[in-house]
Amino acid sequence: MAGVGEPLTRVLLSDQVYTRVRGLIIGGDLKAGDRLVEAEIARDLGVSQAPVREAVKRLVHEGLADHIPRRGSFVADVSSQDADAARAVRVIIEEFAARAVAERCTAAAMEGLSSQVRAMREAAAAGDIGRFRDADIGFHRSLCEASGNPFLTRIWSLMEPSLRALRVVSDPLFTGDWTQMADHHGVLLEILESADADRAAAAFAAHARGDDGILDHG
Fold it and tell me: How far apart are the first and last CA of the chain?
């Protein structure tokens, strides 16, 4: 595969393959729809296909690639219209959930959310974007579960695969500070703990829209 670069060392090969290919996707060298041919990548990087296979699985899990049975894996093509539509629904869900959680704020709910924030901070420090996304999505799933409304949890469960695939939660192409993103979630948690339902609803709605600047102003 043209542009993949120099052969890799033997240490953590799947991580290195993942980092290399992910960088090509983010940098635009690999375009939406390009096929990720494991044998070709392995040959260009001087490794076996096993670490390449693991790396491609991570890219699919993150939403950067799609796997089509009997055809292979391809760089994901995300529709901006679909992403905007999913984001609009997410705003409504999280605004409703945050209000409910702030009104019935329990120690168990706060600990569950806090554990996800800790996981985000650890993943950011380790540079593990896949683990960060899992914790981020887990945080918002836990918010819905903590609302006490089973239908809200069911709706989130139905939407979650699409939110991940469309990069509506924790966009893996984000080029900013992942630690700062984790800190934003810490602020959201503090707002929930304040038991101010209106403020919590507004903060989570803004976060779902991508407007985290509101958090810097109380």
Answer: 49
